[in-house]
Amino acid sequence: MDQEAVLFNKEGFRFIRIMKNQYKLDFSIQNERIIIANILNFNLIKLIYDLNPDVYEYVNIEKINENEAVATLLMKHFFEDLGLPQKYSYMNMKRITEPNKIIFHSQSIRNIRPNGMPPDSEPMNMKDLICNCVSETQHKVNFVVNVIFHENTHVPPFAEKMIGMILFKIFKRVKQFIENVVV
């Protein structure tokens, strides 16, 4: 399972296993009516979650400053019928600006359980989530999202496909929203 494999490829979205516990999602967003880099901030991150209430049960993004935030996310209980626990993420998020590139780097906060999480829920074993937003033009941005789980995490093949479908649903909605914005 350490071999690179395309797990999901549809409508310009690709979800790839790079190696065990390391995945990549890539896609592009284009809108000739706006300068996309101007909306790549924590409000967009909140929009990602707000556009997907069927995926997220609870979302809180606490902005520390323009370039740092703490996010608490409780996923819907997708695998309840299989006896698997509900998952949440508690992450420190940083926004790094470079020429023609904005990077969102999120790392799990592992030693603290956020308030309000169901008692039987467990943290997602995500180590890093790095979203590179590279401007091809002012109106087109290519996104490459790298997700790295902790070494001791086992992601079964059926879950890999499901993760790909969920990510497709999430980012397709965001893509449609941004591509239809008129200023």
Task: Write the SSE topology.
Layout: E1 5-10, E2 13-19, E3 22-30, H1 42-50, E4 56-65, E5 68-75, E6 87-98, E7 101-108, E8 122-123, E9 126-137, E10 140-149, H2 157-179
Parallel strand pairs: 6-8
Antiparallel strand pairs: 1-2, 2-3, 3-10, 4-5, 5-6, 6-7, 7-9, 9-10
Question: Could you provide a short overview of the structure?
Answer:
With 183 residues, the protein is α+β, with helices and mostly antiparallel strands.
Keywords:
ten-stranded mixed sheet, 10 strands, 17% helix
Structural account:
By secondary structure, the protein is of the alpha+beta class. It is 17% helix and 46% strand. The chain is built from two helices and ten strands, in the order E-E-E-H-E-E-E-E-E-E-E-H. The longest helix is centred in the C-terminal third of the chain and has 23 residues, at 157-179. The relative contact order is 0.23.
Give the biggest sheet: 10 strands, mixed
Mean pLDDT: 91
Poorly predicted residue ranges: none
Order of helices and strands: EEEHEEEEEEEH
Principal-axes geometry comes out as globular
Helix content: 10-25%
Strand pairing plus helix content: what structural class? alpha+beta
Strand residue content: over 45%
What value does the Rg take, in angstroms? 16 Å
Strand element count: 10
Total helix count? Answer: 2
